Amino acid sequence: MADPTPHNSVARAMRNGGFGSVTPGEAPTLQALWAAIGHTRGLVEALAPGMGFLVTYTLTQELVLSVAAPIALAVIFIAARALQKTAMMPAIAGLVGIAASAGVALWSGRPEDNFVLGFGVNALWVVVLSVSLVVGRPLVGFLAGALAGDPQWRSRPGTRRIGAVATGLWLVVFGLRLIVQVPLYLAGSVSALAAAKLIMGVPLYAALLWVTWLLYRAVYGTNRATAE
After folding, report:
1. Whole-Å CA distances, 67 to 93, 96, 106, 114, 184
2. How does residue 50 score in pLDDT terms, banded at 50, 70 and 90?
3. Where are the alpha helices (DSSP H) in the chain?
4. 3 state SS for 151-190
5. pLDDT of residue 16
6. CB-based contacts of 174: which residues, under 8 Å, 6+ apart?
7. What is the per-residue pLDDT for 23?
């Protein structure tokens, strides 16, 4: 049995989740990427609430109806999971986030404030990823090492360099979200902001996950071929 180190604990947690479908070093496939984003259900649960807000606000310009629509959809997703006896935590976590964002908007009376918490999450990731690069322990490198069962990834120039590059790419994406969306928020362009969040959400996440996988495929695939 492996020692209960933080590295092993992270590896187990990630393999039990969607990231276990995209192990570095294995050939990337659309099927595995689809699994990583939660299959059709995960995609619908990720996109539908935001789409509900966008459509409702565009048609009605009403704050209460606009924030109620994604909450109603999230409740439906939870009910569907309960009836089918599947894991409910993803849907519950989604509802909590949606309700919290709606609460901020209702408290302020400004529909654009429905996105404030999202800005905070992106800003937090920018800080965390930046710090991990500054201290020489790139977060994506650590996570990829956990998935690949490679706690010594920092001892090799190839995996260490790829870890820094991949972490930098994720940092750019989170920063880009803020660069694009915050000006829309300040301008009060609610519909444009909602659309930008949808476009820069799951589609961008899936694309970057694929790129990250290809980067690690290059380094781990080479290492395995050499070992064989």
Report:
1. 17, 13, 8, 8, 18
2. very high
3. 6-16, 30-36, 39-60, 63-84, 89-108, 116-134, 139-148, 157-187, 190-199, 202-227
4. CCHHHCHHHHHHHHHHHHHHHHHHHHHHHHHHHHHHHCCH
5. 47
6. 122, 123, 125, 126, 129
7. 56
Tell me whether residue 84 is in a domain: yes
* Range with lowest mean pLDDT among 63-67, 71-75, 79-83, 152-156: 152-156
| AA identity, residue 113 | D
How far is residue 215's CA from residue 210's CA, in Å, rounded to a whole number? Answer: 9
Residue-level pLDDT at 153? 86
34 in a structural domain: yes
In this structure, is residue 1 part of a structural domain? no
The tokens describing 209, both together, are 């996950």
Q: Report the first-to-last Cα separation within the chain, whole angstroms.
A: 26
> Residue 34, Cβ neighbours under 10 Å: how many?
16
Residue with the two structure tokens 């909602």:
194
Overall number of domains in the chain = 1
What would the pLDDT profile of 4-24 be if each residue is shown by its tens digit?
A: 444 444 444 444 445 455 555
Q: Are the CB atoms for 146 and 2 separated by under 8 Å?
A: no
User: In the predicted model, what is the mean pLDDT of residues 139-144?
Assistant: 90
Classify residue 138 by burial, with Cβ atoms within 10 Å: 0-12, 13-18, 19+. Answer: buried
Q: Which domain holds residue 154?
A: 6-227
Structural domain includes residue 150: yes
